[in-house]
Amino acid sequence: MKKNAHRLFILKNQYSYTQKFGSLLSINVIVSISLVLFIFGLCGLLILHTNQLGQIIRRNFELQIFLKHNLEQSELDDLRRTLINKPFTQKTKGKPDVSFISKEEAKTEFIQSTGEDFMRFLNDNPLRDSFVLKIKPEFYTNPQIIRIQKELEKIPGVFEVSYVKDLVITINRNIAMISLVLLLFGVFILLTVIILIDNTIKLALFSQRLLIRSMQLVGATDSFIQRPFIIQAMIQGSISGLISSCILFALLKYLHLQLPELILLYRLEDFLALICLLIVLGSLVGGLSAFRAVRKYLRLSLDELY
How far is CA 112 from CA 52, 108, 109, 117, 126, in A? Predict the structure, then answer.
């Protein structure tokens, strides 16, 4: 009987301090954590957009394959099949990105872009038939492109393979530099998020330190005391992550209305992954912070609690 009465007393106290712990879920605390996660979400969104921009640039990189003069149609068809079957040839919606430009089309395009008709001075069209080939993004490195260029120039019927070499080097260098800066900034923001959430939870639990000690004195185990605090902190972190995700989504939609071109950088699966990361991060950091804070107060002496 005494044991049951003691257990009932503990349960009543647990219910009491759990109710009081509801103050941890106050609007101020949730807003604070939501804002911190929102800043981290902005950083994540910037990283995703930068990565997608790099992918778009790589996917639109073209090699121009100039052909020898007077090739037969059968030779052109063989060349096309050879290019289509190359492992580095990019495919869009299942179709290889290989297009043929005749020398007549090249002549028309040249005249339209420059306004000069060289046919007035020449009796023959000096331009060549060509194929325009887009390569897969994973092959977009200077050594890989040079290797591809040499491989294509060995194909019978190919005169020369051309691309803007300086552009490849510049783009790769800029993408690498931007990625490094964003990675370092992301790590800094992540550490800041963890520290701010940890401090917010600790401050919220500070008012519960005497209640924690009271439960310890009546015989409650450490895990029994910690459990409701950890659960509530994880719920708080999840709610904050969800709120920050909603704000981020609203901001993204507003930016899409103002700058429609940004839609090209938007991928639903990446954004959903970012939302999950915010919710999980808020929940895990909140639960871990509550665990550390409660354990700290369990180990303090009575004089240190005041």
Answer: 33, 6, 5, 9, 17
Amino acid at 48: L
Tokens (6 digits) for 137: 């993004």
User: Mean pLDDT in the chain?
Assistant: 79
- Model pTM score: 0.72
Sign of the dihedral through C-alpha 288, 290, 292, 298: negative
Q: How far apart are CA 150 and CA 31, in angstroms?
A: 59
Question: What b/e readout covers 145-172, taking b as 16+ CB neighbours within 10 angstroms?
Answer: beebbeebeeeeebeebebeeeebeebb
* Side-chain half-sphere CA neighbours of 133 within 13 A: 28
Helix or strand (DSSP H, E) at 67: strand 62-67
Predicted confidence band of residue 245 (pLDDT cuts 50, 70, 90): very high
- CA distances 302 to 9, 21, 202, 276, 306, Å, are 22, 21, 18, 41, 7
CB 290 within 8 A of CB 200: no
Q: Which residues are CB-contacts of 41 (< 8 A; sequence separation ≥ 6)?
A: 244, 245, 248, 274, 278
Strand, coil or helix: 132: strand
d(CA 270, CA 146): 32
Q: Please say whether the beta carbons of 135 and 89 come within 8 A.
A: yes
Residue 130: enclosing H or E segment and its boundaries? strand 130-134
Position 280 pLDDT exceeds 90: yes
Q: Give 73: exposed, middle or buried? Use CB within 10 Å, 0-12, 13-18, 19+.
A: exposed
**Alpha-carbon span 306 to 302, nearest angstrom:** 7
